[in-house]
């Protein structure tokens, strides 16, 4: 009897209570350390240029690689999570992030920074962030939406604190010592990962990651083995490798959804195009302000203002967009937020006075809050939830490509013209054109769908048998969190 009670206690569900809230605190800190970190790179932009005698384009490759890897490493992170678990991947990410920044403090050329701070730190931040958010899905069921909303405030806190700390360390001890200290700070991701201990569920509610699915490739291999083929036959091994590779691409990169789902196609292309200009203010705002005579401390404060306003506006935007009034209309709210981002850039073109730049940061932060809160909600609207994981894999990889090439191309334009205004012209062009493309395309798609449905209803009414069949068809639902989940934040 006592053994039965002990077994019951050991398999009790820990979701939504007790240690789950400690995990949530760790997730907040984790998001501040990882997603918030790239925003401070602009503080070091001018010093790195002078140190390595690099152009704007060459210097901007460093933060571009970091952000692109941070967003595009989702599929690799999910494979590791499935194989080793969230706790291990978060701690691995912390080690990589710390190692990358410590190595960066000893770099002798800007190209070495691409590898250390760009690739290694970016990949480590990706692992820590995405595995840290994935574990929330296991610890929270009833309060999952609230937990994700609270965790996302860590990004805004990071945006607020990282630039201020960066400017202080830069003034006191230079960029090399600052990067060395950053390496130690990022190692705290390992502490956050240690808090995220593996969850022990009741025997009837094992997570999907604990029950590997039988893949078609393994069934095909078993069939050939039963027919007498040797498992070590070269042709069979090559066929098995090709099959597994195809299955992995199909699982993590939703090319079939992209070809069949017009809404997903429009949204993915639009957001990918938008990312060419979305990150430009984060990279170039501080150098632009310093170039126009703003004191370095005040210039670093501009990024902190954007983050501070995000702390309050982003949750409000998420709550507002979740109201039933906006059901089916969130895509237009998203387009409006992107359009406002693009239009706000013209404020910087008008004047580079510090007071004007503060106004710009306030408006940009409000618009960015809308984009950040709606990006994945809209994706959930246009893609069925059972296909969301793979759809998000392709989505994040495509946007990471434009995040990578956007700032360096704009930096090249600034090098040629010696005019920082082209940063904001470029950003406005990509953002406004993306907003118009997404909004108008979905409007046309919606009208086309309504016309098709009206025409179909007019020509032939569905039979009662067909209606009852589709209305009573059971849908399998799983309360367990997804085994594979890519999550990024903007």
From TrEMBL:
Protein's membrane topology: Multi-pass membrane protein
Annotated GO CC locations: basolateral plasma membrane
UniProt keywords, alphabetically: Membrane, Transmembrane, Transmembrane helix
Ranges of Basic and acidic residues composition bias in the record: 211-222
NAD as UniProt keyword: no
Region (Disordered): 208-235, 454-490
Subcellular location: Membrane
Pfam families: MFS_1
Ranges where the Major facilitator superfamily (MFS) profile domain occurs: 20-451
Top-level division of the source organism's lineage: Eukaryota
Molecular function, one GO term: monocarboxylic acid transmembrane transporter activity
PROSITE patterns associated with the record: MFS
Transmembrane segments: 21-45, 61-81, 88-106, 112-139, 146-165, 177-196, 266-287, 299-319, 331-351, 357-379, 391-410, 422-445
Name recorded for this polypeptide: MOT6 protein
Organism: Certhia brachydactyla (short-toed tree-creeper)
Gene: Slc16a5
């Amino acid at each position: 009897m006592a053994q039965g009670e002990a077994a019951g206690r050991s398999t009790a569900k820990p979701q939504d209570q007790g240690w789950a809230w400690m995990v949530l605190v760790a997730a907040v800190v984790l998001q501040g350390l990882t997603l918030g970190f790239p925003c401070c790179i602009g503080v070091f932009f001018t010093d790195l240029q002078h140190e390595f005698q690099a152009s704007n384009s060459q210097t901007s490759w460093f933060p571009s690689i970091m952000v692109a890897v941070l967003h595009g490493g989702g599929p690799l992170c999910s494979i590791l999570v499935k194989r080793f678990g969230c706790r291990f991947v978060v701690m691995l990410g912390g080690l990589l992030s710390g190692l990358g920044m410590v190595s960066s403090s000893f770099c002798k050329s800007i190209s070495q920074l691409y590898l250390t701070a760009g690739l290694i730190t970016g990949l480590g931040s990706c692992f820590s962030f995405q595995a840290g958010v994935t574990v929330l899905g296991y610890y929270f069921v009833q309060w999952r939406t609230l937990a994700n909303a609270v965790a996302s405030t860590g990004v805004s806190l990071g945006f607020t604190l990282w630039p201020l700390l960066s400017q202080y360390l830069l003034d006191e001890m230079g960029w090399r010592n600052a990067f060395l200290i950053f390496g130690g700070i990022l190692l705290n991701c390992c502490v956050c990962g240690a808090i995220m201990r593996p969850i022990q569920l009741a025997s009837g509610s094992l997570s999907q990651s604990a029950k590997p699915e039988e893949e078609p490739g393994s069934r095909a291999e078993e069939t050939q083995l039963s027919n007498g083929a040797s498992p070590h036959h070269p042709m069979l091994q090559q066929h098995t490798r090709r099959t597994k590779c195809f299955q992995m691409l199909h699982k993590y990169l939703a090319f079939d959804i992209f070809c069949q789902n017009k809404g997903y196609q429009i949204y993915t292309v639009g957001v990918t195009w938008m990312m060419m200009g979305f990150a430009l203010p984060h990279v170039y705002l501080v150098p632009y302000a310093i170039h126009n005579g703003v004191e370095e401390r005040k210039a670093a404060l501009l990024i902190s203002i954007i983050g501070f306003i995000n702390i309050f506006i982003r949750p409000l935007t998420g709550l507002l967009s979740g109201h039933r009034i906006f059901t089916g209309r969130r895509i237009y709210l998203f387009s409006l937020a992107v359009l406002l981002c693009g239009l706000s850039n013209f404020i910087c073109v008008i004047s580079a006075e510090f007071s004007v730049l503060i106004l710009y940061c306030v408006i940009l932060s409000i618009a960015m809050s809308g984009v950040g809160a709606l990006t994945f909600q809209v994706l959930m609207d246009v893609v069925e939830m059972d296909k969301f994981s793979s759809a998000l894999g392709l989505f994040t990889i495509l946007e990471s490509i434009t995040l990578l090439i956007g700032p360096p191309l704009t930096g090249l334009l600034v090098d040629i013209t010696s005019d920082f205004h082209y940063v904001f012209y470029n950003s406005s062009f990509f953002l406004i054109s993306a907003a118009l493309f997404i909004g108008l395309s979905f409007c046309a798609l919606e009208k086309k769908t309504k016309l098709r449905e009206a025409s179909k209803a007019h020509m032939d009414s569905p039979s009662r048998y067909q209606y009852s069949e589709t209305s009573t068809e059971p849908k399998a639902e799983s309360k367990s969190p997804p085994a594979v989940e890519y999550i990024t934040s903007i």
